[in-house]
Request: fold
Amino acid sequence: MSQAHYARIADLYDQFVQTDYDVAFFIQEARRVNAEVLELMAGTGRLSVPMLESGIPLTCLDYSAEMLNNLEVKLQDHQLKASVHLADVRHFDLGRQFQQIILPFQAFPEITQRADQLKALQSIHKHLTADGEFICTLHNPVTRVKSVDEQLRLIARHNQPDDGQMLVWLLQRYHPEKQVVEVLEFFEIYDQQGTLTNKLFSPLEFHLMKKAYFEELIHQAGFDVIQLYGDYHYNPFDEAHSPFMIWILKP
Reply:
């Protein structure tokens, strides 16, 4: 997993990760269940804050103290309340169960070892009510691997408070023998004169899980499939074209 990565980039994360393409989906799913939701690998609250603002009671869990510190600041700034826990998704114990558990933003594949993946799913299963559901989001490896070209690319450019800029560069490499994508992230901070004032490099990895692989894994952990969507607009999964695999699972 990528704990060291998020410790390094926690204070930069919200500047270059500003997407909201999945927010409406998770709000709608939470409202359908109408119960407190457990959000795993919640990070700095990219999804947590809009869900809480929509009136959804939320428990947030992440293994990065640095990311959760930023979430706590956001909760205070927005006058929101959530139960926040520093814990590893592979072996956590909150002493209670939830009607709905979500693991958004295709974060589960950052657990790259099968034994750890199974431990995480078993921990999640333990925290789910008998009639509850678990929403797990994955990349579709068939389409995701097409963007892995081993080229250094500028993916974000953001203004800084001192009129400087932050540039974010990305280089991705696919290791087919492990079915793992190695991601190298480079952050450059420039002042208003264009002088480089800081540069940071941080690597992470994620597992491109094939559909059959994940099906075997979830069945081993005691889950059945309710639904599999290919995007956040509820379209059926199409292996050749869908960007994601959005699994709705039950015990």
About this structure: The chain has a mean pLDDT of 97. The longest helix spans residues 3-16.
